[in-house]
Amino acid sequence: MHILFFTRSVSQFRPYRSIIRALSARGHTVRAVFDPRYERRSSFDSVRRFQEGTPGFSYTFGCRRGGAWKKIIFAARELRSYRRYLLAPRQAAFYRERWVNFLPLPLRTFVRAFPRASTALIKSRWFNAALLLVEKITPSLGGIVDMIRNEKPDVVVVGYRNLPSRALDLEYLKAAKALHIPSVIPVLGWDTLTTKGLIQIVPDRMLVWNEDQVAELAEHHDIAGSCVRVVGAYQFDFWLARTTPSLNRAEFCARWNLRPEDPLLLYFGFSYSGKDRRLRDGHGPSVVEGLRRALDASGDARLARAQILVRPHPMHTDAFRNMNVRDATVMLMENTLMSAPEDVELLYDTVYHSLCAAAINTTAIIDAVIQDKPGIILNWDEYKTVQGGTHFKQFMATGAVLISHSSEEFSKLVRSLVDGNDLSGADRRAFFNNFIRPRGATRSAGEVAADEIETLVHSYEKKK
User: Fold this and answer.
1) pTM strictly above 0.85
2) Whole-angstrom Cα Rg for the chain
3) What is the per-residue pLDDT across 6-31, written as a single tens digit (0 to 9) for each?
4) Is-contact 272 283, C-beta < 8 A?
5) What homologous superfamily does CATH list for 2-65+141-237+444-463?
6) pLDDT tens track for 347-382
7) Are the beta carbons of 191 and 68 closer than 8 angstroms?
8) Bridge-partner residues for 184, per DSSP?
9) Which side of the chain, N or C, has fewer Cβ within a 10 Å radius?
10) Residue ranges of the domains in the chain?
11) CA neighbours within 13 Å on the CB side: how many for 73?
12) CA 197 to each of CA 78, 110, 169, 414: distance values in angstroms, whole numbers, following the listed order
C-alpha cells in the first residue's frame, strides 16, 4: 500500500510520526508532502533523520494555488470558517475575534464596521449556500492533481489544520475526491476541532482521539456517523514509549545549577497572538514573578526555597530571555520545532523531575498529566479570556488538573503536593484512559490509526 501524507510543516509533522512508523513497519510506503512555503523557512534535518530510520518513507514539496480563483476561493473558505465560530454557542470570543484577522481586508473592515449586520448576513443559510457553490465550482488545483496521479497512492492522508483557510489542507482533500481516491484526516491536536478552521470537505475517514472529539466534530463541523473512528492520541505515543529520563535528578540539577534537595516547580508558557498586553506578557516574566511572590508569601519555608523551571512555548521564547526572577530557570532560550531528540529529552526530563506543572493555556500540560504529574491551571482573572475554549473548559472539568483561582490558592495547592497529598491522581489516570488511550492503555494509538487506514483502503478495493 502506498500512502500520500500531506502535512503543512516540520512542526506539524512530528505528531504523525507514530502513524507513519506503524505503516512503515507493516511494509507500506509513505510519501510525505510539505507546503513549499516552509522549504526555506524550516530546517528539515529532523525529517531526514526520520527518513533514515523509517523504511519506505520519503518526502517532497507540493505546490500552491495561484490564478484567478485564488482570491475568490480563499475568501470563501475564510468566511465559512468564521461563520462556524459565529454559530458555535460555546465558543470563546477570543477565537472568533482571532479569525476576523484572517479575513481579507475589505471583509475584515466590513465585519468590524457593521458587526450586527455582518453577523446576520454571514450566519444566514443562503449566504452559506453561496459559499458552498463557490467551493463546488472552483476546480481542483492542477499541480496537486498531477502529483497525486503520478504518485498513484492508495489513500491520501491530510494533516488538517486549515489555519488560515488559504493553507493547502483543503486542496489535497479536494484533489483526492476528484480522483476518487480515499482520504483520511487524523486530527492534529486536542484543540484542532474547536479552535482551528472548518473542515469544509469531508474525508472518507476522520480519525479522532476520543469520544470528546466525536462530539466536537458533530457540534463544530457537522460531521458524524460511520466516517468517524476513535483511535487515541497518537501525538503522545513517543512519551509512552519512554520509561526513564536521560539524566537522573542529581545529573539534571547539576546541569541546570539547581538544588536537588528543594522542590522543582514547572511553569509552561503558552502561545498568544492577540492584542491584550496583559496576555502577551502573561506568557512571559510577569506570571513567573507572580508565582514567585505567591510561594514567598506562603509562610512555608519549603515553598520559599522552591525553584521554578520555566518552559516557554517552543516558538515563543523571546519574552523570557531577559527574565530575572529569583530561583527561576528558563529551560529553553531559543525557538525550536521540538523535532530534535535532544529537545524531546529535555522536555521529558524537566517534567519527570518536577513536583508539578503549572500552566495557563497550553497543550503541554497534557505532557505532564501523561507522566502522571499533578498539573495546576492558573485560572486567574487576567488569564480567563484565553481559557474559554471548549477544549480547555472540558479539560479543566475532568479533574485531571487542579484549578487555582488566585495566587494564594496556588501556594496552598503546592503546599499540599509538597506534603504528599495528590488530590488529582485518580482523575489523571481516568483522563489518560478516556482521553489519551481509549482503545487500550498499552496499545499505540498510531497502530490503531494504521489499522483504520488499512481497513479503509481494503473496503475501497472491494468496491472496485
Assistant:
1) yes
2) 23
3) 998 888 898 899 999 999 999 999 99
4) yes
5) Glycogen Phosphorylase B; (3.40.50.2000)
6) 999 999 999 999 988 888 998 999 999 999 999 887
7) no
8) 157, 205
9) C
10) 2-65+141-237+444-463, 69-137, 245-436
11) 21
12) 8, 21, 10, 38
